[in-house]
């Protein structure tokens, strides 16, 4: 297996055998923006393929998730977070949950039109739409494709509530939409911050904006009147858990209304990718990290059970939860919940304007 140079999250790029897909390995990559230099190896650049779905709103009935519908403008995510639970979805396309997930992306340019069509259906029942629940709606390619912005424009036009979860300060580009929507009680944002240590962030989330930029985004969102929360998801034992108190204190100083956390989850192909990442970047504590994760997950790498998957179990999980509560109390952060209005919604108008 070829070694993977820095600037990507996964150290492996093999397809899943869950769907009888072949195993393969590919060479590593360089940053897309790096200019060619004498003697440099070929770069594995990010590619984007257009996807044309028939619908854009995904629905779920999971009892431990606080929303019943979401929109994902993109498949795959250039941020390259090694722990991302969405990685296995690439296996359905005969692509690797490893480097393919980070470099072979799919964009849905018809998302805004599809959304408008769904919101116009008779009998549509409004509930907040969540963006960023699978892959980041503000990953780098959003700067060019602007699919997320198109979705926001549709939701703003019909006063439809929404939530956003992101690791990127690119969300500030859309303050001209989010600010007025928040003023009506229609928008809230959660900014994900897993570590404030540059060396850890660079390997854990190699292409996500630096932690200080995310904290700056929290301040800017709050200053613009947007309800903003900080997500410490995931907490990685023996890698980032020592930063819980520091992150919460920084979130409080930045104006976050609330915080929440989830212990690291390693479903399906994520577990071997994460293990390989540990061996590459933290060989001195790899066994300890996995031992604690298994202790939290009932002796397994992952616990898929509803409710328990979000909080874990056992002494380690209890300790993390206790530290989290105490840190929030010390930082003056309460247990504020995201509450958005639904009564303002009106269906978007089609090509023919309403007569009334």
Outline of the structure:
32% of the residues lie in helices and 12% in strands. With 356 residues, it is α/β, with parallel strands linked by helices.
Structure characterization notes:
- The chain has 356 residues and is α/β, with parallel strands linked by helices.
- It contains twelve helices and ten strands.
- A seven-stranded mixed β-sheet has the order 2-3-6-7-8-9-10. Strands 1-5-4 form a three-stranded mixed β-sheet.
- Residues 1-6, 18-39 and 352-356 have low confidence and may be disordered.
Give short descriptive properties of this protein.
356 residues; alpha/beta; TIM Barrel; seven-stranded mixed beta sheet; 12 helices
Write the layout of secondary structure elements.
Layout: E1 47-50, E2 58-59, E3 69-71, E4 74-75, H1 99-103, E5 104-107, H2 111-119, E6 129-131, H3 142-145, H4 147-157, E7 162-166, H5 175-183, E8 187-192, H6 198-204, H7 211-223, E9 228-235, H8 244-254, E10 258-263, H9 270-281, H10 286-296, H11 308-311, H12 314-331
Parallel strand pairs: 1-5, 3-6, 6-7, 7-8, 8-9, 9-10
Antiparallel strand pairs: 2-3, 4-5
Helix pairs in contact: 2-4, 8-12
Count of strand segments? 10
CATH superfamily membership = Aldolase class I
Please trace the helix and strand order, writing H or E for each element. Answer: EEEEHEHEHHEHEHHEHEHHHH
Estimated radius of gyration: 20 Å
How far do the termini sit from each other? 66 Å
- Uncertain segments are 1-6, 18-39, 352-356
The description of the largest β-sheet is: 7 strands, mixed
Q: How do the strands line up in the largest sheet? A: 2-3-6-7-8-9-10
Indicate how many domains the architecture comprises: 1
Q: Helical content, roughly?
A: 25-40%
Task: Specify the number of helices.
Answer: 12
What does the average pLDDT come to?
89
Strand content: 5-15%
CATH architecture: Alpha-Beta Barrel
Looking at the structure, the CATH topology is TIM Barrel
* CATH C-level: Alpha Beta
Basic shape: globular
């Amino acid at each position: 297996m070829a070694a993977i140079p820095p600037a990507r999250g996964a150290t492996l790029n093999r397809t899943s055998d869950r769907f009888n897909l072949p195993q393969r390995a590919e060479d590593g990559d360089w940053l897309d923006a790096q200019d060619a230099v004498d003697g440099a190896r070929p770069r594995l650049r990010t590619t984007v393929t257009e996807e044309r779905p028939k619908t854009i709103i995904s629905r779920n009935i999971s009892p431990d998730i606080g929303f019943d519908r979401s929109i994902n403008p993109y498949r795959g995510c250039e941020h390259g977070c090694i722990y991302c639970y969405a990685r296995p979805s690439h296996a359905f396309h005969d692509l690797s949950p490893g480097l393919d997930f980070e470099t072979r992306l799919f964009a849905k340019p018809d998302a805004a039109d599809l959304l408008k069509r769904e919101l116009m259906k008779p009998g549509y029942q409004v509930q907040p739409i969540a963006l960023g629940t699978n892959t980041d709606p503000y990953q780098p390619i959003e700067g060019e494709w602007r699919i997320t912005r198109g979705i926001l424009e549709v939701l703003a036009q019909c006063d439809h509530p929404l939530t956003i979860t992101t690791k990127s300060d690119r969300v500030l580009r859309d303050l001209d939409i989010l600010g007025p929507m928040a003023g009506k009680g229609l928008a809230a944002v959660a900014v994900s911050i897993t570590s404030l240590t540059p060396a850890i962030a660079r390997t854990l989330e190699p292409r996500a904006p630096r932690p200080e930029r995310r904290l700056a985004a929290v301040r800017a969102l709050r200053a613009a009147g947007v309800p903003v929360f900080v997500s410490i998801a995931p907490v990685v034992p023996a890698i980032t858990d020592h930063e819980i108190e520091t992150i919460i204190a920084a979130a409080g100083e930045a104006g976050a209304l609330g915080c929440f956390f989830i212990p690291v989850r390693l479903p399906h192909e994520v577990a071997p990718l994460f293990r390989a990442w540990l061996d590459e970047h933290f060989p001195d504590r790899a066994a300890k990290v996995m031992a604690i994760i298994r202790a939290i997950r009932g002796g397994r790498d992952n616990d898929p059970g509803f409710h328990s998957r979000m909080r874990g179990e056992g002494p380690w999980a209890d300790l993390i939860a206790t530290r989290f509560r105490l840190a929030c109390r010390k930082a003056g952060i309460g247990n504020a919940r995201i509450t958005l209005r639904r009564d303002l919604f009106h269906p978007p108008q089609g090509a023919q304007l309403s007569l009334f």
